[in-house]
Amino acid sequence: MNSKTKSRPGRPATANKTTGQVQSLSRGLALLECIAEAKTGVLLTDLAEQLGLPASTAHRLLKTLESQGYVRREPAQELWFIGTTGFKIGNAFLASRDFVRQAKPFMQELVDELGETSNLSILQNDHAVIIAQQQCNEMMRMMVPLGSSSPLHASGVGKAILAALPEAERSQQIEKLELSRITQWTITSKDALNEVLVECAKAGWSLDDQEHAVGLRCVAACLYDERGHPLAAISVSGPLARIDDARAQHLGEKVKDKARQITEFIGGSWPQ
Question: Which pick of 20, 52, 61, 134 has the fewest CB atoms within 10 Å?
Fold first, then answer.
């Protein structure tokens, strides 16, 4: 397969069996989701295989989506990407989440004070997805596009959100996770992950210690909504060469303090 997306054997080709129109809509939305997840483009044949569709059906749906600007095709490699209309809809989602706009000045303060890139991420299924970013000026810095995702068990933001959940809910989330190994430092034991999350909950911040990318460290803390439930997480990330153990502790406390400020500013409830 040319794309980097994984096959989806459990995804039905038709999510709704009521009418042909609804079925086509469901299939079209599923195609959009697969293309968005691919990031580097995906072949028609791969899309058809992932969704269990005939290639002719997938092609017809893609041409309809293309005519409306939701997807675009790169002729040279025959790859499909998200189009300008799809991009606008994605941006509309961010605009509707007002806390994103409200958090950005605080994120910039972190960058100015700590000199490392700051990210804002939300929970989406079993991944943490970056929805806002403030870049630092260092030559060596973390640079990932908005919409990038990382597994909850192997990311600072993912662990911050998991640690902030009530104990019973946290245990349920852990049981659902597939703890795949990404680097030699990735946590792959559910018992070990739970122990780490308990410590993160006590500290109020979490650490990704090269668990998602070799040579990269990330510290994160959770933002809370008005009910005191995890809403998102902010983080700062940088190379291991700049973030030793002592500085990781310093960054953790700073990020936690900024997370508290954001939570209070947006009307959230910080845990007592």
Answer: 20
